[in-house]
Design goal:
This protein is mostly helical. Helices cover 81% and strands 0% of the residues.
Length: 118
Amino acid sequence: MIAFDSTTASMGRAMSHAFVRAARGATLVLLLFTQAVAAQSVEPETLIQEMTSLRQQGKYDQAVVVGKKVLEIAEREYNSDNPNVATVLNNLAGLYESQGQYAAAEPLYKRSLVSVIS
């Protein structure tokens, strides 16, 4: 029998909340990019769907690679202070956070906040 203490339960809830935030963010990014590039290319939409699918399968390393491609496209299509770029940064940070790579996640979270505040 596995014993769970309050710390274990709290960590489980925190991880669950982080996953829900990441999924919501990915959905938002998909909607934003679909609207923004509908007349241009299907590539960003396809990449976002791939990233979301990989994350749901627990393939975070592969999702990060795709997320970086989405960020490159977002930075090319929009100004760095655009909310779309901030959302992509936040989602990529969430992928790193899901893997426990907090040092990689922190600067992306900070950049996304600066983009939103600017």
